[in-house]
Design a protein that fits this description.
alpha+beta, Aminopeptidase, single chain, seven-stranded mixed beta sheet
Length: 148
């Protein structure tokens, strides 16, 4: 499986996978895809993860794996790739919101964070402000600076 930056040609398959996974997809645009990573099997989309970068902070979003490929560790590989890419971009802190997958993220080093604290740091990220319902759990992960 190959992980690479998404292209505009990936927009429709990404939206379809996010819709199937019951994740937000309505705000996905070609310009937003510049910080999305896709995992492919040949040319078929296996999984996706996105970042919305605000200086040294980023919102991790849209982590999804095609149901045919689940339970094979691909979500963890996508998360690891997103963390490495974040570090490359100079991001030191990842935030994310979830309604159901918090156990997965806790197992990968994320911790609970006050939603208002995160919102103040990610003040203009539409996905965080408008598209995630208030019952969502806000999580944070500080990236290890030694990887820079």
């Amino acid at each position: 499986m190959k992980i690479e930056l998404a292209s505009s040609m990936d927009e429709k398959p990404i939206k379809a996978l996010l819709h199937e996974s019951r994740l937000v997809y309505e705000d996905i645009t070609p310009s937003l895809l510049k910080n999305f990573l896709v995992m492919k099997d040949d040319s078929a989309l296996v999984g996706v993860v996105g970042l919305e970068v605000q200086s040294r902070f980023a919102l991790l979003r849209s982590l999804a794996v095609n149901p045919k490929f689940r339970s094979r560790g691909y979500a963890a590989r996508l998360l690891e790739a997103a963390e490495r890419y974040s570090e490359y971009l100079g991001v030191v802190t990842l935030f994310m919101v979830t309604t159901a997958a918090h156990g997965f993220f806790f197992n990968h080093g994320f911790k609970s964070e006050d939603r208002m604290t995160a919102a103040s740091l990610l003040h203009l990220v539409e996905h965080f402000q408008r598209l995630c319902p208030p019952p969502s759990l806000c999580l944070i992960k500080e990236l290890e600076e030694e990887h820079f």
